[in-house]
Here is the input.
Amino acid sequence: MFVSDSQRIGAVVVLLVMLALYGVYLNQLRQSIHEIPIIWGEQKPGLLAVELKDDKDAVGIYFLPPETTIKQIRENTRIQGMPGKNDLMKIKDTGIDSGSSIVFALGGDLKVGDMAAAKKLALGLPLNLNVATEEDLSLVPGIGDKIASQIVQLRNRVDRFRNHSDLMAVPGIKEKKINAIKSYFFIKQ
Here is the structure.
């Protein structure tokens, strides 16, 4: 097969154009990916697992030292919003604990709530047995919809649980089951 000089030049030009387009594409792709540096990314004892959100969406879950200030959180995440009066406050002074969700409102205010039960369980954080819903309880291995419903009914009758052994009043829950599931719960007095 005979290849003329013009065909060779054409093939080289096509190859160079394709490489140039590929380079432009990679450059744009690299610029469009905004990686957030994980400043507190390891789950260690003493750190609080906190979900951070702004008015638009979730930013992520961070493991923060209790001495972290709200200002440091703003500076080291992609949270948008105006500085607020709470910026110099440390996390430990806000009443935030592990499993909390912090929403940074546009006015600079903080709204503190709870992280979803599924996220807590995925992170190995226990649920508060005195506030967990039926749906939350049914996520725990060994507790189905029926037992979850019975636990909530019992809690409504007794007002609140004082310890894990209170669950033995639920039909089908014995000491063996309590030992298997108690690591998934805590009881806030």
Q: What stands out?
A: Residues 1-33 form one domain.
